[in-house]
């Protein structure tokens, strides 16, 4: 009986129009082929000519000798980390957080920040600290503070993401560059501004703002 059913099925398949039979075979072949992965998250960007180079050039500046009574010029080191697989908007929060801190304080605070950028910033600070001691004559690696810390936009890679009903969506894989400058010495007490201001200082500021007003279209 099984042989009879097999023969009937064979006759049915061969009796169908050739186009339908080929279509069925094509559908079965599609299911047999493994699905293609459209994800591009595994792409590692190589160094290119468009990478920023100006920031590290500040390490090669040669300053003139100082006068006997002149205040000592503190040593500094500039360092950068390029093509980070992270959004520059998210990195901005971490870069602003450590700005104006001492190195020890930043290394103590960053593990408590629940962001991926905190780990990247911590590694960059440790690399810059090692370069300061080895190449820039800094005697104590703990006697450093973060004078500048900022990020810039890196390359953006466009990828595809599969949706339902054979549709495709666009996804953006953003990268950023992180720059830091460590300076020898202790950090200032007020990095951004001095606050609270006294009454006379606030009054003088208000008078200057009023005097600087201009009427548009006037002589």
TrEMBL record:
GO biological process assignments: translation
Gene Ontology CC terms: mitochondrial large ribosomal subunit
Domain of life: Eukaryota
Record flagged with keyword Cytoplasm: no
A Pfam family reported for this protein in Swiss-Prot or TrEMBL: Ribosomal_L22
Entries under CDD domains matching the protein: Ribosomal_L22
Molecular function via GO: structural constituent of ribosome
Keywords: Ribonucleoprotein, Ribosomal protein
InterPro entries (UniProt xref): Ribosomal_uL22, Ribosomal_uL22_bac/org-type, Ribosomal_uL22_sf
Coiled coil: none
Family, as annotated: Belongs to the universal ribosomal protein uL22 family.
Protein name: Large ribosomal subunit protein uL22m
Species, as recorded: Melanaphis sacchari
Gene of this entry: mRpL22_2
């Amino acid at each position: 009986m099984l042989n009879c059913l097999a023969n009937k099925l064979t006759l049915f398949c061969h009796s169908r129009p050739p186009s339908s039979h080929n279509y069925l075979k094509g559908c079965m072949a599609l299911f047999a082929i493994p699905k293609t992965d459209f994800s591009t998250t595994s792409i590692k960007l190589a160094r290119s000519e468009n990478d920023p180079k100006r920031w590290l050039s500040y390490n090669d500046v040669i300053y003139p000798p100082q006068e006997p009574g002149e205040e000592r010029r503190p040593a500094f080191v500039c360092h950068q980390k390029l093509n980070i697989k992270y959004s520059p908007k998210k990195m901005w929060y971490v870069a602003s957080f450590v700005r104006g801190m001492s190195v020890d304080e930043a290394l103590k605070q960053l593990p408590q920040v629940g962001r991926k950028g905190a780990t990247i910033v911590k590694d960059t600070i440790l690399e810059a600290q090692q370069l300061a001691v080895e190449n820039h004559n800094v005697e104590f690696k703990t006697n450093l503070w973060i004078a500048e810390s900022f990020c810039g936009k890196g390359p953006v890679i466009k990828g595809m993401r599969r949706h339902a009903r054979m549709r495709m969506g666009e996804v953006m894989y953003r990268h950023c560059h992180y720059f830091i400058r460590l300076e020898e010495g202790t950090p200032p007490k007020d990095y951004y501004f001095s606050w609270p201001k006294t009454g006379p200082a606030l009054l003088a500021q208000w008078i200057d703002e009023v005097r600087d007003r201009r009427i548009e279209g006037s002589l």
